[in-house]
């Protein structure tokens, strides 16, 4: 297959582009950081981004490229507190996103101590030291950076970073389709980063790639959107971080091979064996015995407990699915009105900026509500699947 995208290596942003032997430069600072604190590819790229955009500014070779990016992204780290609270009830928010908020503050303090206060000849100004700057660099590193096969670390490759993820996913049953990892490759003969075509494309077809299969929660957290996935895709799942009801049950759970707490992303199309594992966890976490075979697979496990877990998980949301559907419909109507208003030529500049801000906030709120809708839809489907069949109910009564 031929390459459909090529970018010269010296036009990409990566830590190795800076001379480690030049005293007082970013390269020597990065080398010193690696020696003192160990190798951290993500943090190294974040420092490069802060240096290029906020220290060099218009003098950066990437200044024009940075101008093509938004100043603020739609990931939750850029949301207001009120908008982020729209995600309440979701473990994606209450565990991962809240932890990311805390981690960002920790990283911010660490950068001040390990970088800004130490390498004052590299970071002279104040712009790179702000939390706003870190949020921007953090999001770029998570959403746009890639590993280039044949090179070490993470790199930001202009043009290639704009290749969209494939919008349509496949059914979970179609196991012959596998997500591609590390789609960009270094060509040493041309000194270029290239992306090869995976198949023949039709004229006018949009080129897209699969980037490792982000699920619903990960896409919202790191990319700021929800993937347009097949209903039965394993990516269309709800994150649950589960802990035994009582501490005395933890050892029983661990002996059965589960982590405590147990992170699991469950799709509505989960296999029966996956539901058995989930059911086994629920039984063990409640202190009840489960028969585990020599292959580690639970046998004849009841599903009463897991149904209770799923129902309790569903009740954690402050709103019902019907309320969310109604709210989402209203939000989409408002977004259409705001977008139409921005098309008017007679709108004053200040009013235009206000409408843009309202549209941005409404778009973020709608994203939060849509995630809740997806998660509740999946939970309801799982509850239906683990509900006892009518003939089983008759047997229990007899």
TrEMBL record:
Q: Which UniProt keywords apply?
A: Methyltransferase, S-adenosyl-L-methionine, Transferase
Per UniProt, what is one GO molecular function of this protein? protein-lysine N-methyltransferase activity
One GO biological process term: methylation
User: Do the record's keywords include Methyltransferase?
Assistant: yes
List the InterPro entries.
Rubisco_LSMT_subst-bd_sf, SET_dom_sf, SETD3_SETD6_MTase
**Claim: Transferase is one of the keywords in the record:** yes
Superkingdom of the source species:
Eukaryota
Q: Which residues cross the membrane?
A: none
Q: Which PANTHER family match?
A: UNCHARACTERIZED PUTATIVE METHYLTRANSFERASE (PTHR13271)
What is the designated name of this protein?
Answer: Uncharacterized protein
* Organism this protein belongs to: Ostreococcus lucimarinus (strain CCE9901)
């Amino acid at each position: 297959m031929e390459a459909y995208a090529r970018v010269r290596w010296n036009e990409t942003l990566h830590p190795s582009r800076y001379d480690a032997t030049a005293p007082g430069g970013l390269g020597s600072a990065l080398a010193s950081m690696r020696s003192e604190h160990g190798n951290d590819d993500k943090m190294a790229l974040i420092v490069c981004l802060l240096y290029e955009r906020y220290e060099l500014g218009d003098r950066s070779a990437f200044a024009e490229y940075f101008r093509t990016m938004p100043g603020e992204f739609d990931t939750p780290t850029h949301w207001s507190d009120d908008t982020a609270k729209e995600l309440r009830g979701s473990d994606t928010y209450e565990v991962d996103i809240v932890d990311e908020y805390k981690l960002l503050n920790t990283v911010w303090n660490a950068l001040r101590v390990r970088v800004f206060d130490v390498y004052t000849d590299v970071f002279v100004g104040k712009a790179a030291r702000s939390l706003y700057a870190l949020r921007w660099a953090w999001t770029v590193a998570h959403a746009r950076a890639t590993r280039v096969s044949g090179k070490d670390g993470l790199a930001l490759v202009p043009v290639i970073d704009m290749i969209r993820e494939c919008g349509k996913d496949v059914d979970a049953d179609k196991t012959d389709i596998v997500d591609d990892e590390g789609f960009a490759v270094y060509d040493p003969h041309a000194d270029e980063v290239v992306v090869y075509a995976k198949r023949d494309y039709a004229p006018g077809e949009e080129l897209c790639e699969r980037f490792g299969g982000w699920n619903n929660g990960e896409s919202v957290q790191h990319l700021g959107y929800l993937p347009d996935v097949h209903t039965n895709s394993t990516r269309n799942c709800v994150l649950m971080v589960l802990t035994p009801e009582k501490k005395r049950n933890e050892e029983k759970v661990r002996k059965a091979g589960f982590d405590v707490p147990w992170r699991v992303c469950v799709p509505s199309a989960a296999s029966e064996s996956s539901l058995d594992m989930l059911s086994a966890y629920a039984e063990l976490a409640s202190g009840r015995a489960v028969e585990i075979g020599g292959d580690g697979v639970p046998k004849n496990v009841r599903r009463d407990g897991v149904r209770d877990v799923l129902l309790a998980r569903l009740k954690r949301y402050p709103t019902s699915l019907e309320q969310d559907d109604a709210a989402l419909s209203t939000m989409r109507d408002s977004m259409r009105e705001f977008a139409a208003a921005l098309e008017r030529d007679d709108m004053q500049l200040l009013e235009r900026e206000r409408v843009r801000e309202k549209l941005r906030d409404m778009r973020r709120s709608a994203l939060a509500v849509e995630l809740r809708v997806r998660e509740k839809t999946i939970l309801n489907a799982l509850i239906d699947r683990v509900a006892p069949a009518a003939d089983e109910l008759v047997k229990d009564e007899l």
